[in-house]
Structures are given as structure tokens and as C-alpha cells.
């Protein structure tokens, strides 16, 4: 899959496209007829307290909604979660797109998230990255992150997580139940990179010693560390004007092609080219389930729209998957763990 020039996670849309040599994953033509979505108001259901599995408050889905999901999830052995900033919002990390509190409403993304600005003056961007990394490090994985860990640890479903997020809440939520050395640890693909991975701007190599994230970040300018080669160390995230990692995008595309179901969570569906990944599954007739309090660009295409938050919807969906999971050795994940 060609990566295309990307906008950072949930920043803004662009005209870049993602495609595979074997299939076109561009947006379906306007005259195509998408499968009708089946929305429901999960918020009207009565929540229960956490079971002994370690998850937070869960939601009981209405019977009709459970029937819709049970039909889709029955027999699923390869599950792909496609996640965006909304899944981490309940952990206290601001989303990127919100009229009042979105990160891009309060800063100039061209100044703090572009390769051109970095090359011109890296100090403001390093301070901004350290602030965001500290915010993420202080956050706790919520019930959604943990539920994915429960599903992986069960061992009966092969799990792949394709995330646009640059925090590490997926890693920490999963390892609460399924350590990395576990045979069923999920493939975890950060298509926009990670705040917790670093490399040299010039030579591209990781630093000999990883930078320490300050306990507090109040300065608007911080000098980034210097690589042994003399180059400046940068965060391993995708900025404006940079392409996505081709290997990771290929792995994500493969996961979409081979999935039994794709569960879309917490994303606006407009960030190119990553937003085209679920279309690979859709164009192959693979069911899409969306968990989002509000409609998104994906909603007209999905089979079921779960109108609730990630922290309530994902545990409910995972419980359905666990209840139906065949008690046999699952197929191996279709992708390996990779980060930019």
C-alpha cells in the first residue's frame, strides 16, 4: 500500500489516497449503495459495575442491538480494531477535533506539527511533544483499552489494533491482561507513529539513550537532544508534509483484507489516507461495526452503529465476542507489531 503524504492523527483531511497493488481502496462512488447502518441508543441501557476481569463500568446492550451484533460477531476469529483519538478521550487526553476543546482549536498545527517548522526551529515542537507525552504518560488506560486486552488474553480470537493515536494507552491497556511475550499478544500498528518512539532527524536511527519525558512541562521552548551523528532527535510521529510508514500501512491493509469484522472506534473518519483503511474491508463485504456517540464519515457505510462511548461500547462488544468465541487455537495475527 502506498502511504501517501499524511496529516497527523485527526488533524485534517487531504487529497492523498491509500491503495494496494491488488485493489483500489478509494472512496466508493457516489452512486454506490452502502449497506444500511443499524443505529441504536446504547446510552438508554442500564450500566453494570465491573466484573472481576478488571474492566470499568460496562453497558448492557438492548436485546435487539445484541441480536444485530451477535449475528455479525458469530464465529469471528480475526478481529480488527481501527481506533482514533476518541478512544483515549475518556482517559483525559483531548481529541484533535472539537470546536471548543480540540487540540487544533488552541494551537497552530502548522507551527507545531510540520516537518518544515521542525527544520526551521525545533525547540517549540519538542516542548509541545514533551507536553503531550507527559499528558499521555499520566493518563490511565480506560475500559476500552482494557477490554481489548481481555479479548487478546482469552486466546480464542486473533486481535489486530490499527490505531491513529500516538499515545501508548493501547500498549498499557493490553499488557494489563496480555503481556507482550504472550502468544496471542495482538498486532499493534501505529499508523501515525508514537510519542514514545524517537529517532534522529538526519540519520534516522534511534538514540543510544531514550530521551526522558519531564515530570512537568511548562516551558514553550525546549532544546531537543542531539544524536551521536550530530543530528537532532525527534519524536517518532508523522507530521504535516510527511508520508506514512509504507510497511505499517501494508500490514494494516492486509489486516483489513483478512478480517472477519472491523470495529471502528473514536475516529472522525476524515484523516487521509488512514481513513481509507476500513474501506478495504467494506469493499470486500467484511462487516463494519462503529462505536461513536455521534455519527461520523463512516456511519453511512457501517453495518451497526453503536451510539455510545468507547469505554462503554467496546467492553460490551468484547463480552459478545468472548461469549461466542470458539474454544480452539486462534489463527495467528495477520500482521506483526510495528511502529514508525
TrEMBL record:
Region annotated Disordered, chain positions: 1-35
Residues annotated for Zn(2+) binding in this entry: 200, 203, 227, 229
Active site: 192
Superkingdom in the source lineage: Bacteria
Transmembrane domains' residue ranges: none
InterPro entries per the UniProt record, alphabetical: DHS-like_NAD/FAD-binding_dom, NAD-dep_sirtuin_deacylases, Sirtuin, Sirtuin_cat_small_dom_sf, Ssirtuin_cat_dom
Domain spans labelled Deacetylase sirtuin-type: 59-324
Protein EC: 2.3.1.286
PROSITE patterns assigned: SIRTUIN (PS50305)
An MF annotation (GO) of this entry: NAD+ binding
Compositional bias per record (Low complexity), positions renumbered to this chain: 10-23
One Pfam family from the record: SIR2
Keyword line: Hydrolase, Metal-binding, NAD, Transferase, Zinc
Name used for this protein in its record: protein acetyllysine N-acetyltransferase
Organism: Corynebacterium choanae
Lineage, uppermost ranks: Bacteria, Bacillati, Actinomycetota, Actinomycetes, Mycobacteriales
Amino acid at each position: 500500500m502506498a502511504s501517501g503524504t499524511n496529516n497527523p492523527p485527526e488533524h485534517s483531511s487531504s487529497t492523498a489516497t491509500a491503495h494496494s497493488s491488488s485493489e483500489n481502496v478509494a472512496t466508493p462512488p457516489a452512486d454506490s449503495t452502502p449497506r444500511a447502518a443499524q443505529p441504536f441508543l446504547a446510552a438508554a441501557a442500564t450500566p453494570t459495575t465491573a466484573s472481576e476481569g478488571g474492566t470499568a463500568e460496562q453497558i448492557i446492550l438492548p436485546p435487539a442491538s445484541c441480536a444485530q451484533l451477535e449475528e455479525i460477531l458469530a464465529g469471528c476469529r480475526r478481529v480488527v480494531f481501527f481506533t482514533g483519538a476518541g478512544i483515549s478521550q475518556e482517559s483525559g487526553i483531548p481529541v484533535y477535533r472539537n470546536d471548543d476543546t480540540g487540540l487544533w482549536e488552541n494551537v497552530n498545527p502548522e507551527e507545531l506539527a510540520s516537518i518544515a517548522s521542525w527544520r526551521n526551529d525545533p525547540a517549540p515542537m519538542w516542548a509541545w511533544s514533551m507536553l503531550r507525552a507527559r499528558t499521555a504518560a499520566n493518563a490511565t488506560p480506560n475500559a476500552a483499552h482494557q477490554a481489548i486486552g481481555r479479548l487478546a488474553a482469552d486466546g480464542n480470537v486473533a486481535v489486530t489494533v490499527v490505531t491513529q493515536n500516538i499515545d501508548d494507552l493501547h500498549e498499557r491497556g493490553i499488557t494489563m491482561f496480555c503481556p507482550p511475550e504472550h502468544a496471542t499478544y495482538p498486532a499493534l500498528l501505529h499508523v501515525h507513529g508514537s510519542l514514545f518512539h524517537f529517532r534522529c532527524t538526519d540519520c534516522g536511527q534511534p538514540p543510544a539513550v531514550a530521551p526522558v519525558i519531564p515530570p512537568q512541562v511548562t516551558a514553550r521552548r525546549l532544546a531537543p537532544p542531539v544524536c551521536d551523528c550530530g543530528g537532532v532527535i525527534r519524536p517518532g510521529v508523522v507530521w504535516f508534509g510527511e508520508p506514512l510508514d509504507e510497511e505499517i500501512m501494508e500490514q494494516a491493509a492486509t489486516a483489513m483484507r483478512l478480517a472477519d469484522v472491523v470495529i471502528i472506534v473514536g475516529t472522525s473518519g476524515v484523516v487521509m489516507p488512514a481513513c481509507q483503511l476500513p474501506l478495504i474491508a467494506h469493499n470486500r463485504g467484511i462487516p463494519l461495526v462503529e462505536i461513536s456517540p455521534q455519527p461520523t464519515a463512516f456511519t453511512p457505510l457501517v453495518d451497526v452503529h453503536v451510539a455510545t462511548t468507547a469505554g462503554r461500547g467496546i467492553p460490551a462488544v468484547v463480552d459478545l465476542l468472548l461469549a461466542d468465541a470458539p474454544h480452539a487455537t486462534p489463527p495467528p495475527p495477520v500482521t506483526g507489531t510495528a511502529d514508525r
